[in-house]
Amino acid sequence: MSSVLRPAAPGQDQSLSATDRAAVRIPIQPTAESAEARYRPISSHLAITPPVSVVIPAMNEAENLPYVFKTLPDWIHEVVLVDGNSTDNTVEVARELWPDVKVVKQAGKGKGDALISGFAACTGDIIVMVDADGSADGNEIVSYVSALVSGADFAKGSRFANGGGTDDMTFIRKMGNWALCSVVNAKFGARYTDLCYGYNAFWKHCLDEITLDCTGFEIETLMNIRVVKAGLRVQEVPSHEYNRIHGVSNLSAVRDGIRVLKVILKEKGVTRAARRRGAGTLGVKVARGETS
Fold first, then answer.
1. What is the DSSP letter of 217?
2. With left for phi above 0 and alpha for psi between -120 and 50, is residue 279 left, alpha or beta?
3. How high is the mean pLDDT of the chain?
4. Mean pLDDT of 228-253
5. Contacts of 66 (CB under 8 A, 6+ apart)
Protein backbone atom coordinates (compact mmCIF):
# COMPACT_ATOMS: atom_id res chain seq x y z
CA MET A 1 0.00 0.00 0.00
CA SER A 2 1.30 3.45 -0.85
CA SER A 3 2.50 5.61 2.01
CA VAL A 4 1.07 8.70 0.34
CA LEU A 5 -1.61 10.30 2.49
CA ARG A 6 -4.97 10.48 0.77
CA PRO A 7 -8.58 11.26 1.77
CA ALA A 8 -10.63 8.58 3.43
CA ALA A 9 -13.00 6.69 1.19
CA PRO A 10 -16.64 7.74 1.38
CA GLY A 11 -18.36 5.98 4.27
CA GLN A 12 -15.08 5.00 5.92
CA ASP A 13 -15.43 4.77 9.71
CA GLN A 14 -13.79 7.89 11.12
CA SER A 15 -14.32 6.80 14.75
CA LEU A 16 -11.44 4.29 14.78
CA SER A 17 -8.65 4.99 17.21
CA ALA A 18 -5.09 5.65 16.07
CA THR A 19 -4.14 2.10 17.12
CA ASP A 20 -7.03 0.58 15.17
CA ARG A 21 -6.20 2.65 12.13
CA ALA A 22 -2.58 1.52 12.23
CA ALA A 23 -3.68 -2.10 12.55
CA VAL A 24 -5.79 -1.93 9.41
CA ARG A 25 -3.27 0.40 7.68
CA ILE A 26 -5.68 3.29 7.23
CA PRO A 27 -3.63 6.49 7.17
CA ILE A 28 -4.55 9.14 9.71
CA GLN A 29 -5.55 12.29 7.89
CA PRO A 30 -3.45 15.33 8.76
CA THR A 31 -5.06 18.70 9.24
CA ALA A 32 -4.45 21.27 6.52
CA GLU A 33 -2.17 23.19 8.87
CA SER A 34 0.00 20.20 9.80
CA ALA A 35 0.27 19.04 6.20
CA GLU A 36 1.40 22.47 5.06
CA ALA A 37 4.01 22.56 7.80
CA ARG A 38 5.44 19.17 6.87
CA TYR A 39 5.31 19.16 3.10
CA ARG A 40 6.32 21.73 0.49
CA PRO A 41 4.66 20.88 -2.84
CA ILE A 42 6.87 21.07 -5.93
CA SER A 43 4.53 19.52 -8.46
CA SER A 44 1.37 17.43 -8.54
CA HIS A 45 3.37 14.29 -7.73
CA LEU A 46 6.37 15.51 -5.72
CA ALA A 47 6.84 17.22 -2.37
CA ILE A 48 9.84 17.82 -0.12
CA THR A 49 10.39 18.71 3.49
CA PRO A 50 13.83 20.45 3.47
CA PRO A 51 13.62 24.23 3.04
CA VAL A 52 15.57 25.49 0.02
CA SER A 53 17.58 28.73 -0.02
CA VAL A 54 18.59 30.30 -3.34
CA VAL A 55 21.68 32.53 -3.32
CA ILE A 56 22.02 35.11 -6.10
CA PRO A 57 25.18 37.26 -6.20
CA ALA A 58 24.43 40.43 -8.15
CA MET A 59 26.17 43.65 -9.11
CA ASN A 60 24.28 46.04 -11.40
CA GLU A 61 21.88 43.34 -12.63
CA ALA A 62 18.59 45.27 -12.34
CA GLU A 63 17.71 44.62 -16.00
CA ASN A 64 18.31 40.88 -15.70
CA LEU A 65 16.60 40.17 -12.39
CA PRO A 66 13.05 40.07 -13.83
CA TYR A 67 14.11 37.16 -16.06
CA VAL A 68 15.88 35.42 -13.18
CA PHE A 69 13.06 35.73 -10.65
CA LYS A 70 10.41 34.79 -13.20
CA THR A 71 11.78 31.25 -13.41
CA LEU A 72 12.23 30.67 -9.66
CA PRO A 73 9.74 28.12 -8.24
CA ASP A 74 7.25 29.49 -5.74
CA TRP A 75 8.02 26.71 -3.25
CA ILE A 76 11.45 28.14 -2.45
CA HIS A 77 11.97 28.84 1.25
CA GLU A 78 14.00 32.02 0.73
CA VAL A 79 15.95 34.05 -1.82
CA VAL A 80 19.21 35.60 -0.62
CA LEU A 81 20.44 38.39 -2.89
CA VAL A 82 24.04 39.43 -2.28
CA ASP A 83 24.45 42.97 -3.55
CA GLY A 84 27.98 43.75 -4.72
CA ASN A 85 27.63 47.49 -4.12
CA SER A 86 25.44 48.03 -7.18
CA THR A 87 25.13 51.54 -8.58
CA ASP A 88 21.80 50.81 -10.29
CA ASN A 89 18.49 49.81 -8.65
CA THR A 90 19.32 46.10 -8.33
CA VAL A 91 18.13 45.91 -4.71
CA GLU A 92 14.89 47.82 -5.35
CA VAL A 93 14.02 45.62 -8.33
CA ALA A 94 14.71 42.46 -6.32
CA ARG A 95 12.42 43.62 -3.50
CA GLU A 96 9.68 44.48 -5.95
CA LEU A 97 9.91 41.09 -7.64
CA TRP A 98 10.28 39.04 -4.44
CA PRO A 99 9.02 41.05 -1.45
CA ASP A 100 10.52 38.66 1.11
CA VAL A 101 13.97 38.65 -0.50
CA LYS A 102 16.83 38.71 2.02
CA VAL A 103 19.39 41.31 0.90
CA VAL A 104 23.00 40.94 2.03
CA LYS A 105 25.38 43.84 1.40
CA GLN A 106 28.74 42.51 0.21
CA ALA A 107 31.64 43.84 2.28
CA GLY A 108 34.43 42.70 -0.04
CA LYS A 109 34.79 42.09 -3.77
CA GLY A 110 34.54 39.10 -6.10
CA LYS A 111 32.04 36.33 -6.77
CA GLY A 112 33.57 34.00 -4.23
CA ASP A 113 33.35 36.62 -1.51
CA ALA A 114 29.69 37.26 -2.46
CA LEU A 115 28.76 33.58 -2.33
CA ILE A 116 30.46 33.04 1.01
CA SER A 117 28.49 35.99 2.42
CA GLY A 118 25.27 34.62 0.94
CA PHE A 119 25.84 31.10 2.26
CA ALA A 120 26.32 32.48 5.77
CA ALA A 121 22.92 34.19 5.59
CA CYS A 122 20.98 31.09 4.47
CA THR A 123 18.55 29.40 6.84
CA GLY A 124 17.50 26.56 4.52
CA ASP A 125 18.82 23.01 4.67
CA ILE A 126 19.56 23.07 0.92
CA ILE A 127 21.43 25.90 -0.83
CA VAL A 128 21.21 26.58 -4.57
CA MET A 129 23.63 28.92 -6.37
CA VAL A 130 22.09 30.91 -9.24
CA ASP A 131 23.75 33.62 -11.37
CA ALA A 132 21.97 36.96 -11.78
CA ASP A 133 22.65 37.44 -15.51
CA GLY A 134 19.71 35.38 -16.76
CA SER A 135 21.87 32.50 -18.00
CA ALA A 136 20.39 29.97 -15.56
CA ASP A 137 16.87 28.56 -15.72
CA GLY A 138 15.30 28.46 -12.26
CA ASN A 139 12.95 25.72 -13.43
CA GLU A 140 15.94 23.35 -13.25
CA ILE A 141 16.15 23.76 -9.47
CA VAL A 142 13.74 20.86 -9.03
CA SER A 143 16.30 18.55 -10.71
CA TYR A 144 19.03 19.68 -8.33
CA VAL A 145 16.83 19.27 -5.26
CA SER A 146 15.67 15.86 -6.48
CA ALA A 147 19.30 14.72 -6.72
CA LEU A 148 19.96 15.87 -3.16
CA VAL A 149 16.89 14.34 -1.54
CA SER A 150 17.68 11.12 -3.41
CA GLY A 151 21.02 10.77 -1.63
CA ALA A 152 23.60 13.17 -3.10
CA ASP A 153 25.46 15.66 -0.92
CA PHE A 154 26.37 17.97 -3.78
CA ALA A 155 24.39 18.39 -7.03
CA LYS A 156 26.78 19.75 -9.64
CA GLY A 157 25.40 21.41 -12.75
CA SER A 158 26.96 20.28 -16.03
CA ARG A 159 26.56 21.84 -19.46
CA PHE A 160 28.24 18.84 -21.05
CA ALA A 161 26.38 15.98 -19.40
CA ASN A 162 23.77 14.24 -21.51
CA GLY A 163 20.84 16.65 -21.70
CA GLY A 164 22.86 19.78 -20.90
CA GLY A 165 24.05 22.54 -23.20
CA THR A 166 25.39 26.07 -23.49
CA ASP A 167 24.74 29.13 -25.64
CA ASP A 168 27.40 31.20 -23.93
CA MET A 169 30.80 29.57 -24.48
CA THR A 170 33.30 30.29 -27.22
CA PHE A 171 35.42 27.47 -28.63
CA ILE A 172 38.42 28.75 -26.67
CA ARG A 173 36.49 28.74 -23.40
CA LYS A 174 35.16 25.24 -24.10
CA MET A 175 38.68 23.96 -24.70
CA GLY A 176 39.96 25.68 -21.57
CA ASN A 177 37.15 24.22 -19.47
CA TRP A 178 37.78 20.75 -20.91
CA ALA A 179 41.52 20.98 -20.20
CA LEU A 180 41.06 22.18 -16.65
CA CYS A 181 38.35 19.59 -16.03
CA SER A 182 40.68 16.84 -17.28
CA VAL A 183 43.40 17.98 -14.88
CA VAL A 184 41.00 17.92 -11.92
CA ASN A 185 39.74 14.46 -12.86
CA ALA A 186 43.31 13.16 -13.14
CA LYS A 187 44.64 14.76 -9.95
CA PHE A 188 41.68 14.21 -7.64
CA GLY A 189 39.97 11.11 -8.99
CA ALA A 190 36.83 12.97 -10.06
CA ARG A 191 34.71 12.11 -13.08
CA TYR A 192 33.34 15.51 -13.98
CA THR A 193 32.13 16.49 -17.43
CA ASP A 194 32.15 20.21 -16.55
CA LEU A 195 34.22 22.26 -14.13
CA CYS A 196 33.75 26.02 -14.32
CA TYR A 197 30.00 26.32 -13.92
CA GLY A 198 28.22 28.25 -11.20
CA TYR A 199 24.83 26.51 -11.09
CA ASN A 200 25.13 24.05 -8.19
CA ALA A 201 23.18 22.94 -5.11
CA PHE A 202 24.18 21.24 -1.88
CA TRP A 203 23.13 20.42 1.66
CA LYS A 204 24.16 23.27 3.95
CA HIS A 205 26.14 20.93 6.19
CA CYS A 206 28.60 20.42 3.34
CA LEU A 207 30.05 23.87 4.06
CA ASP A 208 31.61 22.39 7.21
CA GLU A 209 33.50 19.92 5.03
CA ILE A 210 34.74 22.19 2.23
CA THR A 211 35.53 25.42 4.14
CA LEU A 212 35.58 28.03 1.36
CA ASP A 213 38.41 30.57 1.35
CA CYS A 214 38.69 32.28 -2.05
CA THR A 215 37.08 35.43 -3.42
CA GLY A 216 36.94 35.18 -7.23
CA PHE A 217 35.26 33.20 -10.01
CA GLU A 218 37.49 30.26 -9.17
CA ILE A 219 35.25 29.47 -6.19
CA GLU A 220 33.21 27.02 -8.31
CA THR A 221 36.32 25.01 -9.14
CA LEU A 222 37.42 25.11 -5.50
CA MET A 223 34.05 23.73 -4.39
CA ASN A 224 34.15 20.96 -7.00
CA ILE A 225 37.60 19.88 -5.87
CA ARG A 226 36.93 20.00 -2.15
CA VAL A 227 33.69 18.01 -2.26
CA VAL A 228 35.68 15.20 -3.91
CA LYS A 229 38.52 15.49 -1.41
CA ALA A 230 36.00 15.40 1.45
CA GLY A 231 34.48 12.18 0.11
CA LEU A 232 31.04 13.73 -0.39
CA ARG A 233 28.54 12.14 -2.77
CA VAL A 234 28.40 14.16 -5.97
CA GLN A 235 25.80 13.85 -8.71
CA GLU A 236 25.99 15.81 -11.95
CA VAL A 237 22.77 17.44 -13.12
CA PRO A 238 22.36 18.29 -16.84
CA SER A 239 21.87 22.03 -17.19
CA HIS A 240 21.46 24.44 -20.08
CA GLU A 241 23.33 27.74 -19.91
CA TYR A 242 21.75 30.63 -21.82
CA ASN A 243 23.35 33.85 -23.00
CA ARG A 244 23.56 36.78 -20.61
CA ILE A 245 20.48 38.89 -21.34
CA HIS A 246 21.76 42.41 -20.57
CA GLY A 247 25.15 43.87 -19.78
CA VAL A 248 28.68 42.54 -19.99
CA SER A 249 30.16 39.74 -17.90
CA ASN A 250 32.95 40.48 -15.43
CA LEU A 251 34.52 37.12 -16.31
CA SER A 252 37.91 37.20 -18.04
CA ALA A 253 38.73 33.90 -19.75
CA VAL A 254 42.51 34.32 -19.47
CA ARG A 255 42.75 36.00 -16.08
CA ASP A 256 40.22 33.76 -14.37
CA GLY A 257 41.48 30.68 -16.21
CA ILE A 258 44.90 31.27 -14.67
CA ARG A 259 43.34 31.69 -11.23
CA VAL A 260 41.46 28.41 -11.66
CA LEU A 261 44.68 26.63 -12.65
CA LYS A 262 46.47 28.02 -9.60
CA VAL A 263 43.68 26.70 -7.37
CA ILE A 264 43.94 23.25 -8.93
CA LEU A 265 47.70 23.08 -8.48
CA LYS A 266 47.56 24.42 -4.94
CA GLU A 267 44.75 22.15 -3.74
CA LYS A 268 46.71 18.94 -4.22
CA GLY A 269 48.73 19.65 -1.11
CA VAL A 270 46.21 21.56 1.03
CA THR A 271 45.05 19.82 4.21
CA ARG A 272 41.67 20.36 5.88
CA ALA A 273 43.34 22.03 8.88
CA ALA A 274 45.07 24.51 6.58
CA ARG A 275 41.75 25.23 4.85
CA ARG A 276 40.11 26.02 8.18
CA ARG A 277 42.92 28.42 9.13
CA GLY A 278 42.62 30.13 5.76
CA ALA A 279 38.85 30.40 6.06
CA GLY A 280 39.21 32.01 9.47
CA THR A 281 41.56 34.63 8.04
CA LEU A 282 39.17 35.27 5.16
CA GLY A 283 36.27 35.70 7.57
CA VAL A 284 38.17 38.47 9.38
CA LYS A 285 38.95 40.17 6.06
CA VAL A 286 35.32 39.94 4.93
CA ALA A 287 34.19 41.56 8.15
CA ARG A 288 36.72 44.37 7.66
CA GLY A 289 36.02 44.75 3.94
CA GLU A 290 39.66 43.94 3.07
CA THR A 291 39.10 41.25 0.40
CA SER A 292 39.87 41.94 -3.24
1. T
2. alpha
3. 82
4. 87
5. 93, 97
Helix (H) or strand (E) holding 24: none
Looking at residue 26, its pLDDT comes to 32
CA distances to 28, 155, 176, 287 from 129, rounded to whole Å, are 38, 11, 23, 22
Q: How confident is the model at residue 27 (pLDDT cuts 50, 70, 90)?
A: very low
Look at 42-51, 92-101, 171-180 and tell me which has the smallest mean pLDDT. 42-51
Assess whether pLDDT exceeds 90 at residue 283: no
Q: Residues 44, 22: contact at Cβ < 8 Å? A: no
Distances (CA, A) of 171 to 30, 166, 168, 230, 250: 55, 11, 10, 32, 19
DSSP SS3 for 60: coil
What is the full DSSP assignment across 126-190?
Answer: EEEE--SSS-S-GGGHHHHHHHHHTT-SEEEEESSSTT-EESS--HHHHHHHHHHHHHHHHHH--
CB 134 within 8 A of CB 68: yes
pLDDT value, residue 281: 47
Q: Which of 6-20, 135-149, 265-279 has the lowest mean pLDDT?
A: 6-20
| Buried b or exposed e, range 107-140, using 16+ CB within 10 angstroms | bbbbbbbbbbbbbeebebbbbbbbbbbbbbbbeb
Distance CA 264, CA 214 (A): 13
β-bridge mates for residue 254, sequence order: none
- DSSP string of 225-272? HHHHHTT--EEEEE-EEPPPSSS-----HHHHHHHHHHHHHHHTT--H
Type of residue found at 45: H
The whole-angstrom separation of Cα 3 and Cα 215 is 46
